[in-house]
Amino acid sequence: MQALGFILRRVLLLVVVLFAVSVLTFAIVNVLPGDVATAVLGDMATPDQVLAVRKTLGLDQPLAERYLRWLLGVLQGDFGRSLQHGQPIGPILMGRLGNSAILGLITLAIAAPLAVALGVMAALKPGGVLDRVIGGIAVGAYALPEYVIGLFGILAFSIWWPVLPGSSLMDPNENPLARPEALILPIGVLITGMLAFISQVTRASMIQVMGSAYIRTAVLKGVPRWRVVMKHAMPNLLPPTIAEIGMYFGYVIGGLVVVETLFSYAGLGQLVTNAVSYRDVPVIQAVVLIVAAAYGIGNLLADVAALLMNPRLRS
Amino acid sequence: MSGVALPAHRRIVLPRLGVADLAGAAIVLGMVMLILAGASLSPYSATAFNPMHSLEAPSLAFPFGTDEFGRDVFSRVLAGARPTLLLAVGAAALGVALGTVTGLTAGYRQGPVDETIMRFMDALMSFPGLILAMLVVVMLGPAPINVVAAIALVFWPRSARLVRSIVVDLAHREFIEAARSRGERASFILFRELLPNVLPIIVVDFSLRVTSGVLLAASLAYLGIGVTPPTPAWGLMVRDGQQFIEIAPWLVVFPCLAIALASIGTVLLGERLRHRLALPGGGRAQ
């Protein structure tokens, strides 16, 4: 029952956060110095053009009224129209969201267990060779932007030794899973970035767990090492680690934007960078909102998963 | 200040690397000298076109090759150090300063002031960093100062949360009680009593933010946000060079190496600083 109450409170909090995010997004777009119409048209626009764009975007109406209309529209799946294509944004958004989710979820499914395994291995002998190798690679992966790792990947695997496509260019409505080989490099880059962080976080928690009294008791009792790690340490290691992976979603999303742009993968990230170069403000606003919502929901799911794994909180 | 617990998500423990710490200091020092020396080290102009030497491979005359307009990639990479590092340092300084003042105030005043400030910080933190910075720069327009403001906005709530988490504990200690009963003004307590106690954490936080700043600024530039050609920004050079990757890989390889060197240098130096000040944890701002 306690758990149900926690989840309920957590969902309520998410609703509050999403509301705040919608207000902030709207505020950044509409209140910051720099008018939307000028952002759309550029500095060279004539006053007449600015006036015309202001009218099409409804900028001549009061701020609060515009926000409410926008919010009501968004709640019904109506995100307005793209300035670049003139089409409603909602349908474009949904297809792109699916494509990004495919990339992000595959990454998470591979990277999370792999990173935890690496972190545990490194923690078993802190300062050992394996720990130093994993730690060294982690520093490198942590310090490099995704596109640097990605471009070296393209050079290595699609130009010097051409085994993988260097671009995932596709029709936005095409199923990305139809060409799995085009997903290998982008997912590889995202995994590298995630491994660095999660493996080091896991390592730190694992060292702490392995130093606790109950683990020492198990070792002294003569419990086999693998059993100590898998049955005794793991249950205490996983909940905090999963919560940390949740905190890390924001970084994965940033990585997705860059990786999608690098590989021309038709996801939300590529949509938003395209929108930026066309100054398509309604699209940018919509993507930011969706991304922040996905981030919030990801955090929530990680918290709930961590909770369900902790028997003390579950009862 | 050891024993102060940082929020769990900010913890990333990297093994000690010994020589690598020195390497970090050497790289950063090298870049600072590069910035001070300015254009005098560059053999050619970073922006002037030279169609006679378009897309030439690295040679003695052009150690990093030339781009499609015949500009020397070596000179452009050197010139790119200044904007990248100044942006990162500026954004880190502004973000950490804002975060410190906010965190001190929220942690010391507590109650409704604290609640209001921290809920606003939470809202800012519910945007992924890159997305927030992107939105702000697009709305403010492409200029270095706007990139600094946008990245500082990403750092602000994260620093504020860190500083507040420490000040909340300190606020109940005797020396603060004493200052209050002496009748000191709030500004005295905040900046003369509390600030010195969080300073080591702020210094480490700042160094980590510089690394994040390098990465964020380079990612924004790569996405074509905040800088416009022909500015020799590393990220922008990679973006423009990518179309020639098959025939002229040097156009992306050298700017990529420069970014890698800059961020690894700042990471290693930050880690060294953290060990020196004996603080647990660190973290990446996202």
TrEMBL record, chain A:
Domain ABC transmembrane type-1: residue ranges: 97-302
CDD domains linked: TM_PBP2
Alphabetized InterPro entries for the sequence: BPD_transp_1_N, MetI-like, MetI-like_sf
SUPFAM superfamilies from the UniProt entry: MetI-like
Coiled-coil stretches noted in the UniProt entry, renumbered to this chain: none
Localization, UniProt: Cell membrane
PANTHER family given in the database record: DIPEPTIDE TRANSPORT SYSTEM PERMEASE PROTEIN DPPB-RELATED (PTHR43163), PEPTIDE ABC TRANSPORTER PERMEASE PROTEIN (PTHR43163:SF3)
Native organism taxonomy: Bacteria, Pseudomonadati, Pseudomonadota, Alphaproteobacteria, Acetobacterales
Pfam (any one): BPD_transp_1_N
Ranges that cross the membrane: 12-32, 101-124, 136-163, 183-202, 248-266, 286-309
Protein name, as recorded: ABC transporter permease
Topology of the protein relative to the lipid bilayer: Multi-pass membrane protein
Organism the protein comes from: Teichococcus aerophilus
Top-rank lineage group of the source organism: Bacteria
From TrEMBL, chain B:
Subcellular location: Cell membrane
Main location: membrane
Record flagged with keyword Manganese: no
Bilayer-crossing regions: 22-44, 85-107, 127-156, 206-227, 247-269
UniProt entry keywords in alphabetical sequence: Cell membrane, Membrane, Transmembrane, Transmembrane helix, Transport
InterPro entries: BP-dependent_transpt_permease, MetI-like, MetI-like_sf
Family matches, as PROSITE patterns: ABC_TM1 (PS50928)
Membrane topology value: Multi-pass membrane protein
One protein family per Pfam: BPD_transp_1
CDD domains given in the database record: TM_PBP2
Residue stretches making up the ABC transmembrane type-1 domain: 81-270
Homology family: Belongs to the binding-protein-dependent transport system permease family.
Protein name per UniProt: ABC transporter permease
